[in-house]
Amino acid sequence: TDTIRELSSLRWDPAYLYEPDKDLALGKYYSKHGGFVLEEHLMGFDAAFFGMSGKTAALIDPLQRNSLEVGASELCGDRLGSQRTAACVPITNDAQFEHALVSVPGALSSLCLCSAIGETETVWPEDAFLERCLTFDYSADGFARGEGTSGIFMSVTHKEPSERLAMFCGTSINQDGRSATMTAPHGPSQQECIRASLREANVTPADIRIAELHGTGTALGDPIEVGALRAVMKHRDTPIFKTSAKSNLAHAEANAGMAGLLKCVLMLRHGVTPPNVHFKSLNPHLDLTGYPVYLCDDMCEIGTNSGYAGVSSFGFGGTNARADIWAKAVHGPRKVQPVDFDKLQAVGVRCPTCLGWMDFRSGSMLPSELPEQSAQGRERARCIRDEFDSYNSCSLCYKGSYQFGKPPSEGPLPQARVCIKGTWDGFSNFEEMKFEAGAFHHHVRLGETRMERFYLALEENDELAVFPSHTSGGMDVRVLGPRQFEAGHHFVIDCRDDQIPEGTLIHITAWTESRHLERKVAWKVEPEEGGSTELQAFQHSYQVIGSLTQARMIPMKPVRGVRNVFEYSTRIGLAGQETFQFARDHDWSQGIYPARDLALSGKVPVRGPDHLGAGNFFAVRGQQGERLALRLEVSDAHVTISASCHSSGTVTWHSIEGRRRRRLSVAGTWAEGYVMKQDGKNPDRYTAQVTDATSAVSCHLV
């Protein structure tokens, strides 16, 4: 919706202040359009409702009259009818262009039961303004001014009231400090403001579905804001939708932040994002390369029935404000329907011991395939454990007895061939396991990374797969199947801690327990007389990914005559810096990466192969056009990476072997996380001294 309209002559006579020729408009405005409030709303006022006489009401500023009416609509009605007390927090500030959004964190921090905040803005005849806010557009050169009064009512509740529109998850405000000019935006400060709000909300950047931008439509402000959001939000699997209410309402200045917040509420409650009005051609200064983003030019469905949205607002004096909210869709095709508990078969939670699913009330394990729902409705508790026994773990992990009933069990394993597929041959072929003494057996050689992944399947069919209930599962994780294979759910043989050498023979066993027909998969080192003398015959491949490959996997060239050494050569681009990491056998879950992002120094250790470092890249700087040579060597789990160019020389990174490679951190209610120290004598013991506002606490992890 475009609410921009021509200035009404009821406000003032534009003949003396309007000049359509921009070059001649000295001391005048050359646009007569803006986001003006309708005159009947601006000038009409129900004085009797507020116990005023008409004469008194005429002396009140129109901004104050609008604020009274909007505030009354917030606070009056059933919402306060059941509240015993109300703390209405008056907020005043001087963060030009974002008054209302800056008020939100202060109101939340001082909120005892409920709070109301709002802001009003009107345009006066001496103000200058343009025709439209052309957010994200090539022709953006300034903003149109707007008016409006808006407010929100907030309350603390432990229930879900039917009238609730959304929930605040995180808020933050900060200041640019010293910058180029008073009005120049500062990208790093905007990034820190966004990150602080996400930390308070305890959500990841990838969880944010919608970004409501400040988006004034200026040549300088839009690229800086989009760049700041990109720096925080770029690592995601699904695109983020970006909009700006200023393209609809113009720039309401003091009311702009609140308008954006209310737009976020409406978008989440309808499950769609409206188009950015007047967006026809992308501003070339917006760098969106490799960034999963959609600048809405049409009505877009966000794809979920609930989600998070974030709104940013930046004042020209350097104050930055951010709020993140959550809401569910109550309109449209993704409208959330009430839960019919008679049709709900089971509510599952993770067992803390085996990470499998269990019924949240009875603790009974949920089988790989739930049985068909009976005519009696939802599943009921079918067994009671011994008195005083805990229900915190599932029935498979519980070793006690039952007073009543018995827990469910898995279905019998069909009579079929059990096959295995793993990283020892790049997941290229299934191999049949041998059945002997009531179990299935298979032997593999440990590869150069001392780490292998695999899963099982009946008759080489991924629809009848057997795999762990959690990604990267060990022997203690519950085994599911046969059922449709879930990507990433592999058994992981990790021999790096014990430094078991490459080529060691590993014996893999799979069987079904008689108790509850539980599936079991285990592995162990198979002793060989004289030690292992054979290596894997399969030649693994390695790929490089990063800015130098446009985020594509490009194969590295194996060095002839040397085992597991690979090279790649390219030239440094325009930016003078290239970033990269590696993958094994075209598998994203076998990434090789540095311990922290943009690792320029060889002191940063190498991590992997695993899926935990998708956002961490090695970095090399040099002159544009210089030849850059990369070399990767993997030998007995020791990874050596080198990068060479003329101006920077050669930088070499190494992995750390054994238990010393681990690095753990502890997080809690204190202000920041702490890196735990590894015990010098016992590498499986980690300690940290944590200090909060009241005391010092020692944490130990074994």
Tell me about this structure.
This protein has 702 residues and is mostly beta strands. It folds into five domains: 5-328, Peroxisomal Thiolase, Chain A, domain 1, CATH 3.40.47.10; 339-371 and 378-408, no CATH class; 418-525, Immunoglobulin-like (Sandwich), CATH 2.60.40; 542-655, Sandwich (Immunoglobulin-like), CATH 2.60.40; 664-701, no CATH class. Helices cover 12% and strands 30% of the residues. It is built from eight helices and 42 strands. The chain has a six-stranded mixed beta sheet, sandwiched between helices. Strands 17, 18, 21, 22, 23 and 24 form a six-stranded antiparallel beta sheet that branches. Strand 40 and strand 41 (686-691) form a beta hairpin. The radius of gyration is 31 Å and the shape is globular. It starts with a strand and ends with a strand. GO terms for molecular function: fatty acid synthase activity. This is Ketosynthase family 3 (KS3) domain-containing protein. Pfam families: ketoacyl-synt, Ketoacyl-synt_C. InterPro entries: Ketoacyl_synth_C, Ketoacyl_synth_N, PKS_Beta-ketoAc_synthase_dom, PKS_NRPS_Biosynth_Enz, Thiolase-like.
What keyword list fits this structure?
phosphoprotein; 702 residues; 8 helices; 5 domains; Immunoglobulin-like; six-stranded antiparallel beta sheet; six-stranded mixed beta sheet; Peroxisomal Thiolase, Chain A, domain 1; mainly beta
Briefly characterize the structure:
Keywords: Phosphopantetheine, Phosphoprotein. The chain is mainly beta and 702 residues long.
Segments where pLDDT lies below 50 for 5+ residues? Answer: 78-98
What's the architecture of the largest domain in CATH terms? 3-Layer(aba) Sandwich
Give the averaged pLDDT, no decimals.
82
Total helix count?
8
CATH class of the largest domain: Alpha Beta
**What percent of residues are in strands?**
25-35%
Q: How many individual domains?
A: 5
Strand order of the largest sheet: 5-12-11-6-7-9
CATH topology grouping of the largest domain = Peroxisomal Thiolase, Chain A, domain 1
